[in-house]
Amino acid sequence: MKNVIVFVDDELMVLQVLRAQAKKWFGDEYAYECAQSVSEAWEVIDELADNHVEVLTIVSDWLMPDTRGDEFLIAVHKKYPQIVTMMLTGQADKEAIERAQRDANLHRCLQKPWKEEDLIESIKTGLKKS
């Protein structure tokens, strides 16, 4: 299986747009997984790891019902330090962004609504790190 880019957001429409924009630019070079919650994201990430499929980057929303994006990305970084982390937000406070930069090695924080070019450029530069 191909290496994977994971998108996490509680809004299905946002996930569909993220996946479509990434697929438009990167085509079939990568696989794309989407999760509507942090618990669903952990299932996807751990299952891929168990099957020896590499998750290259995770783009996660910050404001979600069960766990904040910075907390999730910090936990991901502790368990899978090689995964490049990015946060997508319309509401994250400065402290949350700084915490993610410090403790999750956050590659980029994009503001909602994001520009497609910014998303793609962030993924591209993140993939160079992985």
Structure, described:
The chain is an alpha/beta fold and 130 residues long. It has 5 helices and 5 strands, in the order E-H-E-H-E-H-E-H-E-H. The protein has helices spanning 12-26, 38-50, 69-79, 94-103, 116-129; strands spanning 4-8, 31-35, 55-61, 84-89, 106-111. It has a 5-stranded parallel β-sheet, sandwiched between helices. Strand 4, helix 4 and strand 5 form a beta-alpha-beta unit. Helix 1 crosses helix 5 and helix 3 (69-79) packs parallel to helix 4. It starts with a strand and ends with a helix. The mean pLDDT is 96.
List the helices and strands and how they pair.
Layout lengths: L3 E5 L3 H15 L4 E5 L2 H13 L4 E7 L7 H11 L4 E6 L4 H10 L2 E6 L4 H14 L1
Parallel strand pairs: 1-2, 1-3, 3-4, 4-5
Helix pairs in contact: 1-5, 3-4
Quick overview:
This protein is an alpha/beta fold and 130 residues long. Helix content is 48%, strand content 22%.
Report the strand count.
Answer: 5
Low-confidence runs: none
Number of helices: 5
**What fraction strand?**
15-25%
| Major β-sheet profile | 5 strands, parallel
Task: Report mean pLDDT, rounded to a whole number.
Answer: 96
> What radius of gyration results from the CA coordinates?
13 Å
Q: How would you classify the quaternary structure?
A: single chain
Structural class, please? alpha/beta
Helix content: 40-55%
Shape: globular
Order of helices and strands: EHEHEHEHEH
Measured distance between first and last alpha carbons: 17 Å
Strand order within the widest beta sheet: 2-1-3-4-5
